[in-house]
Amino acid sequence: MPGEASGTGNFVPSLGGSLLTDPVRLFMTAVSYSWLIIACAISGLVMGSVYASLQTKQYRASLQINIDVGRASALREFEVVGESRSFFVTAESTIAASIRTRRLARRVVYELNLTEKPNFYIQPVRFSLVGILKRAITGRAEQPFIPRTYDERERAAINRVLAGMQITTLRRSPIVRIAFVHNERSYPHVVVNQIARSFIELSVDQKAESANKIRLLLQGQADLVKQQLTSAERELNDYAKSISFTDLEEQPAILASRLSAVNDALNAAVQDRLELGLIVQQITEGKAPSLSAVLESQAIEGLKQRLATLRADYQDKLSIYKPDFPEMVRLAGQIEDTQNQLAKEISIISDSFVLRLAQAQQREETLRQELALVTASSREYREKSVEFIILRREVDSKRSQFEALIEKLNNIGVGAELRSENVAVLDYAVRTPDFFSPRRSRIVVAAMAVMIMLSIVIIFILELINNRFSNPDQIESELELPLLGIVPFSDAGDDLHALDELDPALEEAYSSLRSAIQFSAIGGNLPSLSVTSSEPSEGKSITSYKIAEGFAKLGKRVILIDADLRRPKLHKWFGVANTLGLSTILADEVTPEDEADLYIESGQKNLVFMRAGNIPPNPTDLLGSNNMARLVHRLTKEFDLVIIDGPPVMGLADAPILARHTAATLYVVAANQATRPSVRHAINRLRASNVNLIGTVLTKFRLRRFDYNYAYSYARSDYYTYNPTET
């Protein structure tokens, strides 16, 4: 493609995601900037090596001591019980503090006479960036502090001992590691051995004082807990008397037995009430004669038999006598009396069931009241029992605390223990043959890591400030237009003859673009097409020519019009003078003799082109005139396709006006050339003019870069190269 794109030219693949959330894109970005990462890594290697070589060498010696916690009453774990909290002092929490003290450091300085050894307490100036800056600003190198008086020397020696001392305690272990670091090889093992010996001496001296303090503290706590125990026992005794402790022990069985009996009686009463309720309901519904008690009554059964006999006798005599006959009247009276007696007997039985129901309900209510009383008594017992248990638990707790404190007091053996050593040196330190700091490998690795992180920050900043289109995904996502084609970068430049000898990859790119334009046309018919871009030198003119050439090869009659009336270019490619052309037609200055010279044969079958003509003073007026609309309309009748190589949008109105005369517009974007805001602004101007934008084409795209997302078939030119040696 003609020309070299401005900007960095770096291709950073994109999957449409964020650079920080897309691992593949992140990896490909790192590959694209591998030169920067490698340069920073090498810089870190060099700077780390230089920094490590300038550091002061440090030597270290160490030893291990074993603290017998079981024999050390001063360091043994003991419990102090307070009024509402417990205090725990453990050996692990006091070892480091007991060793790293100025008292111990002063004894070490005195034993080794370190105040008279300047090379011990005078610390050399270490290489640092702060020192370099001070020297650059003041012009003087930083000098070490040299003490003069004895107090200054002693203070400097003590500080040096404390600064070089390193203590490591192993959790849940009596082993303690003590180390000492110094820039002189002859001091570390001597000083660390003396630290261990001085610590043993100090521990023996301090045990008496520590044991006395512990005894006093425990004694005070024991007295306090004893008072609390006495008070708790009295309170428990008073409460037991107030609630009759004997009744409290016997009451659970009595309450349980009573509660069980009341529950059983209540269940039986409820059952009786339910059964009697059903019987009374049957009586209320008029079904009393069908009750089992009625059916089983012998008196009722006799009355029923008598009533049946009287009725039968009455029926027999009714066939002989009339109802008002004295004998018949007597029988009717007997029948009525018998019926009354029968109803009375049934009523007596029914009334007995109603009475029994009332009695059952009263008994149930009485039992429920009794159950409530038993439940209340049980609740009262539980409350008293809980309070009694709380008081007894408090007494037990205080008694346990008191016994523990008494046991600890008895276990403090002051006599023999104060004179025994509880610290033993497992192995004394020896002179170290080599230094342990600076660790050059770690410094170099850290410097390289810092520089690599710096390179990542630089890459991220470069990606943020890169506001040009570098890959196709950016075009589709930001412009919201389909990408119809991708044209690789070519070294042909503006040489049209060189373009005729395009490599297969470039030729295939234009063929794919032509096919995409065909598919985007409604109904497959595209009468006219304008091609524009944001700014000059984006490959707009060559794209117009190659599209026209591609359609001409398909047998379509195509005319290519150079409509850039400000900077025309097509006449130079074809080697003709720019005398007659589009501007002449639009200005109505064409004579009949000149019409034959308006259409120039391109050398390609079915393809002609029209020059721009003389540059007019008012290109916008000419392109927006009715003559331009009539010309495009007439040419669409004479040719199958009219392709207009329009001017770039820039800040002018030529391109939007011209694009309105065509059926479709193709927008050309050069990779890493036009800025994204300018392209978006140009697209918005075209859309505001109601231009039919069918899509975009990305030109000057460098396919020779390491790519994973756009490895199209035409990316490898040798794919289309015929090799006669292959079958």
Walk me through the structure.
There is one protein chain. With 727 residues, the protein is an alpha/beta fold. The protein is 56% helix and 11% strand. Helix 4 packs antiparallel against helix 8 and helix 17 crosses helix 18. The N terminus and C terminus are likely disordered.
Quick take:
The chain is of the alpha/beta class and 727 residues long. The chain has helices at residues 23-32, 34-54, 91-99, 102-112, 118-121, 129-138, 150-164, 188-242, 245-284, 292-296, 298-318, 326-411, 414-417, 440-465, 472-479, 496-499, 504-520, 540-553, 570-574, 582-586, 619-623, 626-638, 654-659, 676-688, and strands at residues 59-67, 78-81, 86-89, 165-169, 175-182, 423-427, 483-488, 528-533, 558-562, 600-601, 607-610, 641-645, 664-670, 693-701. β10 (600-601) and β11 (607-610) form a beta hairpin.
Features:
single chain; 727 residues; alpha/beta; eight-stranded mixed sheet; four-stranded antiparallel sheet; 14 strands; 11% strand; disordered C terminus
Number of helices: 24
Sequence of strands across the biggest β-sheet: 7-14-13-8-12-9-11-10
Basic shape: flat
Structural class, from secondary structure content? alpha/beta
- Tell me the total number of β-strands: 14
Rounded Rg: 57 Å
Bin the strand percentage.
Answer: 5-15%
Strand and helix layout:
Blueprint: H1 23-32, H2 34-54, E1 59-67, E2 78-81, E3 86-89, H3 91-99, H4 102-112, H5 118-121, H6 129-138, H7 150-164, E4 165-169, E5 175-182, H8 188-242, H9 245-284, H10 292-296, H11 298-318, H12 326-411, H13 414-417, E6 423-427, H14 440-465, H15 472-479, E7 483-488, H16 496-499, H17 504-520, E8 528-533, H18 540-553, E9 558-562, H19 570-574, H20 582-586, E10 600-601, E11 607-610, H21 619-623, H22 626-638, E12 641-645, H23 654-659, E13 664-670, H24 676-688, E14 693-701
Parallel strand pairs: 7-14, 8-12, 8-13, 9-11, 9-12, 13-14
Antiparallel strand pairs: 1-5, 1-6, 2-3, 4-5, 10-11
